[in-house]
UniProtKB/TrEMBL annotation:
This is Serine/threonine protein kinase. Coiled coil: none annotated. SUPFAM superfamilies: Quinoprotein alcohol dehydrogenase-like. The keyword ATP-binding does not apply. Residues 44-165, 170-274, 316-371 form the Pyrrolo-quinoline quinone repeat domain. InterPro entries: PQQ_b-propeller_rpt, PQQ_rpt_dom, Quinoprotein_ADH-like_sf, WD40/YVTN_repeat-like_dom_sf. It comes from Haloferula helveola.
Length: 414
């Protein structure tokens, strides 16, 4: 391998292990990049190749997280005429409920500002050291014992939301990092994992009219320095875990309501910039300091960029699944389109890659399984699950875990 390419590949790395995973501990898996290892089922139906299916009560679009034989999701349910927010755990071997825990009763004001496509339980939990960290945005945050659901602590970060909440939590060391890109006074919080107290709070600094966004941060190592990469309306910033100091930023006009989680590959971070007219930016990480908008943005493209699904890195390609079903492979060095495949449907769930197998789930409940290469993509299977799919999938030990609107599924294939 050419020395310069080797330096690029190693100068910016995710702050998560890249070896075979024993858990699916956060939104988009062990690295947060939507990439799994091992076997991947490619053919099944709702009645065949399904190891178990478990009906789940209430509503919610949080994605499943898995560790120590337990799968955890969050739900919003109605009890005695009031909404309650819960965490629920299930045994991965059988799909049977392990425990449930009622955590919060949001006020009428707290539940008023929600987009029709959003749920009250959209933020994906995170698991570490036998503790599951639950987040409902402005409605409440908590830490629970993974084994039995015992509440270790709970608190609220109060802010005025727009369209509800969707940003998922990220863990780093002793910190739990959450975005609060609210309608007013957006900020990033780092909470102490042991008790939920605020370690630091950093306001967003961006000259935009609409400040609300819903992206999930990514923690990386950049030239020996740990950085929290966190996109928001109008800008993406890198923050120091120690004190929340803004290390560098890149701006992008009036981008807002930003949802996709950034990915890192080949020494660059790749960011989709939100609604209306989204762009995909490749930002070089080596030497990034201060405002790098003019110095480090390697390329940007404007066609077929996702507003909701997150990106995928595959070999020399950045794969983007846009909300209307265009799957595009961009050259990671130049941004030039290498190939495109059109799928039928609308997409909110982020895609998942395992080897050469790519999973894409439609809002109407169709699971597409594609075989991808650097030259293109072909559909292997098209499975109608009979239930809407907004949550992102998990894949562990050769089993695909899906959360549909009314059920959890463990799929091993036929």
């Amino acid at each position: 391998m050419h020395l310069r390419r080797l330096i690029l590949l190693t100068s910016a790395a995710l702050a998560f292990p890249l070896h075979a995973a024993e858990s699916w501990p956060q939104f988009r898996g062990p690295t947060g990049q939507g990439v799994a290892e091992g076997d991947a089922p490619t053919k099944w139906s709702p009645d065949s190749g399904v190891e178990w299916k478990t009906e789940i009560p209430g509503d919610g679009w949080s994605s499943p997280v898995i560790d120590s034989g337990k799968l955890v999701i969050t739900t919003s349910e109605t009890e005695n005429g009031r909404m309650v927010l819960k965490a629920r755990a299930y045994e991965t071997e059988t799909g049977k409920p392990a425990w449930e825990r009622k955590l919060f009763e949001p006020t009428d004001d707290e539940i008023a500002a929600r987009h029709a496509k959003n749920s009250f339980a959209s933020s994906t939990p995170a698991i570490a050291d036998g503790v599951v960290y639950i987040h409902f945005g402005h409605m409440g945050t908590a830490a629970l014992d993974l084994d039995d659901g015992k509440v270790l602590w709970q608190r609220k970060i109060s802010y005025k939301p727009m369209h509800g909440n969707g940003s998922s939590v990220v863990l780093h060391g002793d910190l739990m990092i959450v975005n609060a890109d609210a309608e007013e006074n957006p900020a990033i919080y780092a909470l102490n994992r042991k008790d939920g107290s605020t370690a630091w709070k950093t306001p967003r600094v961006a000259d935009v009219k609409r400040t609300f966004s819903f992206s999930t941060p990514t923690v990386i190592e950049n030239g020996g320095r740990t950085e929290i990469i966190s996109p928001g309306s109008g800008m993406v910033g890198a923050y120091a875990p120690k004190d929340g100091k803004l290390l560098w930023k890149a701006t992008y006009d009036e981008g807002f309501s930003l949802i996709p989680r950034p990915i890192v590959a080949g020494g660059s971070v790749y960011v989709a910039t939100g609604f209306m007219k989204p762009e995909l930016l490749a930002i070089r990480l080596a030497g990034a300091d201060g405002d790098v908008t003019k110095s480090h943005v390697e390329w940007h493209v404007k066609k077929r960029i996702p507003k909701t699904p997150s990106l995928i890195h595959y070999k020399s390609r950045i794969i983007a699944l846009d909300d209307t079903g265009f799957v595009t492979g961009f050259d990671w060095k130049t941004g030039k389109e290498a190939w495109m495949k059109k799928l039928i449907g609308n997409f909110s769930s982020s895609p998942l890659l395992c080897g050469d197998t790519l999973y894409c789930l439609t809002e109407d409940g169709v699971a597409y399984v594609l075989e991808v290469s650097e030259e293109g993509a072909e559909i292997i299977s098209e499975i109608d699950m009979g239930d809407r799919l907004f949550a992102s999938p998990a894949l562990l030990d050769g089993a695909l875990y899906l959360r549909s609107e009314k059920a959890l599924w463990k799929i091993t294939g036929t």
